[in-house]
UniProtKB/TrEMBL annotation, chain A:
Annotated membrane topology: Lipid-anchor
UniProt KW keywords: Cell membrane, Lipoprotein, Membrane, Signal
Pfam families: Bmp
Coiled coil: none
CDD domains reported in the protein's UniProt record: PBP1_PrnA-like
First-listed, main subcellular location of the protein, grouped into a coarse class: membrane
Compartments, as annotated in UniProt: Cell membrane
Region (Disordered): 26-46
Family in the record: Belongs to the BMP lipoprotein family.
First and last residue of the signal peptide: 1-19
Naturally occurring in which organism (per UniProt): Occultella glacieicola
InterPro entries: BMP_lipoprotein, Peripla_BP_I, PnrA-like
Biased composition (Low complexity): 32-42
Protein name: BMP family ABC transporter substrate-binding protein
From TrEMBL, chain B:
Main subcellular localisation: membrane
Keyword annotations from UniProtKB, A to Z: Cell membrane, Membrane, Transmembrane, Transmembrane helix
Subcellular location: Cell membrane
Signal peptide location: none
Transmembrane segments: 28-47, 76-95, 102-121, 127-151, 158-179, 185-207, 214-232, 272-289, 322-341, 353-376, 397-417
Membrane topology label: Multi-pass membrane protein
One Pfam family linked to the record: BPD_transp_2
InterPro entries registered for this protein in UniProt: ABC_transp_permease
Name recorded for this polypeptide: ABC transporter permease
Domain of life: Bacteria
PANTHER family: GUANOSINE ABC TRANSPORTER PERMEASE PROTEIN NUPQ, SUGAR ABC TRANSPORTER INTEGRAL MEMBRANE PROTEIN-RELATED
Length: 371, 428
């Protein structure tokens, strides 16, 4: 009767080994999920820059990936030591933060709204270490804002760039209907949708048109959410429904789920997609659909991560929130690429003017999620 | 009277009314409460004068019906009158000890329509009924294949918790093979192979090594999840164009049938995966309950010792069934990526477990599994469609819909069920 025990043991070992590989592919060990890579580019190797992903992982072709690229750039350009902990489910956030603290990280960056509580707790418990958090400020349990001396929020006024995308969509739609949907109703998601809705409304006001936006009600702060940031099939079905309802420009704000929108758009004539976070035209995974990407609402998370590390390495870490805007280039509208010839020159000029007005502060785009 | 030897019998020898099983008023009372809540929500506390638009045909359909414009309050009132009628009928039936039969199901359908009319009241776009039905089918397909896999395994006495892992493995290999070859049908051949390999592990550990079947299943799910995540992060992200860019599975319209209004396009203008599903459900239903093979499989699942006594090879039957069932689940995994969708981490998103619930709700029969999977698919699709048209129900509540349907269905509708008797027990 010893056989079953061996079998269980073998299976368990095999499962654990393989699961370990899957959970943290860049890592040597699973529990802590940290990795060490030292380069001899510069002599800052005693500075340890660390990053924790949210459950999307560092290869999500979206904000985790952007953040990680900033960390990798800091490793290459500044010669710091980096460690990273990839989370595959929300239960790992706290353990990963502890692992980073124990690994002696000088600066730990959490990527995503979902890590707010984790980073805040770690920062409060370790006042001598530095922390940063992408996409969210810190708050007390009653939602009142909290400022910590050793934790820097990296925020983005994405609604400014999304407003320009909405204005563009208003001018480019042939059917008079555009649509947007999100992954989950996080402030960092709905801020895109708020700006987009306002942009379309501004176009309607300027041109006397009546372009409709499906999928988001800014007043009610309620709309279409696919429920997660992984299930592309939901993105595909949602987009099909919007196209059936007459929409011809879709803004998916759901990371990799946007691939479902591209697939659905490719089945219909004249439907285009506005990508988010990075320039979708340049994403290798979108190579087949480049002709469908009208533009992208980009959010340079990588730059803000790099700048934060750079300042910390130089010894002047500063916990005042970084807010990416059109003005400082933290958010932007990507080039039109394949649509360059199709966007009318007047519309391009109008968008340029609006960008100038926003930068000058003459035009303020409101959003409950703005910073 | 009191000194009667048998209190169950009245003096003239007839069965005493009071000694019979007590009348259960549960169902009529539940229906009555739901009717009253529905009346309040959908008729009394609703905005009068609103119109509910229901889009009945798509622009591409052969027979155009157009859009129905129904006065929301009036239509909901009519439906609720029907609902109260059905409630009254159920009280009458209970009082007379009649079987309720289809009354609860009819009641559910009537209330569903009342809810839909309320949910789209005043919406300018209207409820896209054909889309609702076609996404129901696409959402149900992986559940149906997963539930069929469960039926095949459990009818032979092996619990298959690893359906989730089999769906995921199937989706993964389908994407990789069809991207590499550029032919979606070769991917469809690869998907069941991946499922069968997971099934083989399940079979070896649970039959040969007699490990607890639930534990093996759970471990296999974690194993497949870890393995596919690892390969996705390392191999697929290095070469997304070559390995994670599956071609689209074309749809075929069946002439005639696909022109039936409303249901035609949803049922008969689909990819080959859906047509395979119809065939597999029909074949398994007949084979399992009408063939010698099916009788043997059920014998092995119910009473393996008896089956062994008459010369049926119990463990060989179980091996075959587990591998075949797992291959079916693997095939179902290809449905996740049929619309030229790339593989993402955990693309199965827990639907293997919903498939397990569909199998139980379907009482371990292929057609039952189909019906249950369609119910879950409908809940899922309704959640999406209502969320996208902007319904008054907050999306967080809508997102709970498929799971609420699962819990209610398994807890409420199933009633007394009996799994195969030898399920989960190694033999000999």
């Amino acid at each position: 009767m010893k056989k079953p025990i061996y079998a269980v043991a073998t299976l368990a070992v095999a499962a654990l080994t393989l699961a370990a590989c899957g959970a943290a592919p860049e890592d040597e060990e699973t529990a802590g999920g940290d990795t060490e890579t030292t380069t001899e580019a510069a002599d800052n190797s005693d500075f340890i820059g660390c990053m924790i992903s949210d459950e999307g992982g560092f290869d999500d072709a979206s904000f985790n990936q952007s953040g990680f690229e900033g960390l990798e750039r800091a490793e290459a350009d500044l010669g710091i030591t980096i460690r990273s902990a990839e989370s595959t489910d929300p239960g790992q956030y706290t353990a990963n933060a502890d692992a980073m603290v124990q690994a002696g990280c000088s600066l730990t960056i959490g990527v995503g709204f979902a890590l707010e509580d984790t980073i805040q707790a770690a920062a409060e418990a370790n006042p001598d270490l530095h922390f940063a958090l992408v996409d969210s400020a810190f708050s007390a349990p009653d939602f009142s804002p909290v400022e910590l001396d050793n934790a820097k929020p990296l925020l983005f006024n994405t609604q400014e760039a999304a407003f320009l995308a909405g204005y563009l969509a208003g001018g480019m739609t042939q059917t008079g209907t555009v649509a947007t949907y999100g992954g989950q109703a996080f402030p960092s998601v709905t801020i895109f949708m708020d700006g987009f809705v306002d942009g379309v409304a501004a176009y309607n006001e300027a041109h006397g048109t009546d372009v409709q936006v499906l999928g988001w009600d800014k007043e009610a702060q309620d709309g279409s959410m696919t429920g997660d940031f992984t299930n592309t099939e939901n993105g595909y079905n949602t987009t099909q429904q919007f196209i059936a309802a007459g929409a011809d420009i879709i803004l998916p704000v759901a990371g990799p789920v946007g691939a479902g929108s591209l697939s659905a758009a490719s089945e219909h004539e004249g439907v285009s997609v506005i990508w988010v976070d990075s320039d979708g035209f340049e994403q290798e995974s979108n190579a087949e659909y480049q002709d469908l990407i009208l533009t992208s609402v980009i959010k340079l998370i990588g730059n803000s991560v790099f700048d934060t590390i750079d300042a910390a390495v130089a010894g002047d870490f500063d916990a005042t929130p970084y807010v990416g805007t059109l003005e400082n280039g933290g958010v932007d509208l990507a080039p039109y690429h394949s649509f360059e010839d199709q966007v009318p020159a007047e519309l391009q000029t109008e968008i340029e003017d609006l960008r100038e007005q926003i930068i000058a502060g003459d035009l303020v785009i409101e959003s409950p999620s703005a910073n | 009277m009191s000194q009667l030897a048998n209190p169950r019998l009245t003096p003239d020898g007839l069965l005493d009314e009071k000694a019979m099983a007590p009348v259960s008023w549960r169902t009529p009372i539940i229906l009555g409460v739901i009717s009253i809540v529905g009346l309040l929500a959908f008729v009394i506390f609703t905005h009068p004068g609103r119109i509910s638009r229901i889009v009945v045909s798509r622009s591409a359909d052969a027979i155009q019906i157009g859009t129905l414009h129904l006065p929301s309050q009036g239509s909901a009132l009519v439906l609720l009158v029907v609902a109260f009628g059905l409630t009254g009928l159920s009280f009458w039936a209970t009082l007379n000890r009649r079987r309720l039969g289809v009354i609860p199901i009819a009641f559910g359908i009537v209330m569903l329509f009342a809810f839909l009319i309320w949910a789209v009241a005043g919406n300018t776009g209207g409820l896209p009924l054909p889309l609702l039905l076609s996404t129901t089918i696409t959402a149900a397909v992986p559940l149906v294949f997963g539930a069929l896999a469960g039926v095949l395994c459990e009818r032979s006495g092996i619990i298959n918790i690893a359906i989730e892992g089999q769906l995921l493995a199937g989706a993964f290999l389908c994407v990789v093979v069809s991207s590499a070859t550029g032919n979606p049908y070769i991917g469809l051949i690869a998907a069941p192979i991946a499922g069968a390999l997971v099934g083989l592990l399940l079979a070896v550990f649970s039959i040969k090594y007699r490990v607890d079947q639930i534990i093996v299943g759970v471990v296999l799910n974690v194993l497949v999840l870890g393995l596919t995540n690892y390969l996705f992060s390392t191999v697929l992200t290095q070469n997304p164009q070559g390995l994670n860019n599956p071609p689209r599975m074309p749809s075929f319209a069946i002439p005639g049938l696909s022109e039936i209004p409303v249901i035609g396009p949803a049922l008969f203008n689909q990819t080959v995966i859906v047509y395979v599903m119809y065939v597999v459900v029909a074949v398994l239903q007949v084979m399992l309950f009408r063939s010698r093979w099916g009788l043997r499989v059920r014998a092995v699942g119910e009473h393996p010792k008896a089956a062994d006594t008459v010369g049926i090879k119990v463990n060989r039957t179980r091996y075959r069934n587990v591998v075949l069932g797992s291959a079916i689940a693997g095939f179902g995994g290809s449905a996740f990526v049929a619309a030229a969708l790339p593989f993402t981490k955990e693309v199965s998103a827990g639907r293997g477990y919903i498939a397990l619930a569909a199998m139980i709700l379907g009482r371990w029969s292929p057609t039952g599994a189909l019906a249950a999977a369609l119910l879950f698919g409908f809940a899922d699709s309704l959640n999406r469609v209502l969320g996208n048209i902007g319904s008054p129900v907050p999306y967080e509540l809508l997102a709970m819909l498929p799971y609420l349907a699962t819990i209610f269905a398994v807890a409420g509708l199933v009633g007394r069920i009996r799994p195969p008797a030898a399920e989960g027990k190694p033999y000999p």
